Amino acid sequence: MDDTAPPHLTQPTRLPAGGPNAIGHMLGLLGDEWTLLILQQALQGVTRYGQLKEALPISNSVLTARLRSLSEAQLLERHVYQSNPERAEYLTTPRSRSLWPVMLAIWEWERQWVPEHPAPLPAMHHSVCGHDFAPVVVCRACGKPFEPREVVAEWGPSGSWARSVPQATTRRRWEPEAGHHYPGLFPETMAIFGNRWSSALMGAAFRGVTRFTDFESNLGAPPTLVADRLRSFCAIGVLEPRANPDRPDWAEYGLTPKGRAFYPVIAASIAWAEHWFVSPEGPAVIQHHRTCGEELTAIFTCDQCERPLAGNDVTVVPADDARDRHEGEA
Fold it and tell me: pTM of the full predicted structure?
């Protein structure tokens, strides 16, 4: 926690009883493609309006609206650095800086599972051990890596489908299969995480929902929207249609290995949400690790030194530096 930040920026948001829970609020904030892209840029030090406009293919009206909503949500802090004419920059806060595990998980998933990037994603470097690394998700209680199938998840005191689905939907700008690429964009993560209903549907898949009608009823979403999201997920290979030998008239969809590999993003997002949005009834989701039997808190470690990762210890390796290092080792 940043002791230099104003007190109101270091405190979690207390939610009213009976309303949207931590997951619903998290999806309402992060389940938006522009929000994720702006935060990605801000965490890399791009804080001024003109810089953001240059870095992203975004209109003035959308950028202005997102910066306003991010400031209201305490993910960015508006700071006026010039008075005549007025100029402001948008600085990261403890709330946004603590998103680094989410961004780290997204980065690694795209590196491993999305080969169609216009340019290869650069490596990440762990300053503690001095090596380039890949993050490993482990159980904090026992320190062992785990697979999604080893996780038992159930609704907590504030958990339900109705309370976990955000109150509004986000209009999509593009489909990943259309072949468009934008600066700094993680295209397939956006297909899953950059749309509120997509995020909710993916969470349902991890909780064992497979039937079309169950997706529709649990999420309270119209069938055309569910069909669109399922079609998109099958197109990028995170879900696959499966036949039910007993009921061939049932449409079922299961996670693929690529889909299950997205779990670290889900785990990091839930942990962030439960920390910053506190329901009076208690957490939205309770997870247990089958292997050790303890309540699961997912953390990330370095695959080289096996030490827990911290945001300040992780840097992106520029492509030229990585190439020079590789040639030197050869």
Answer: 0.85
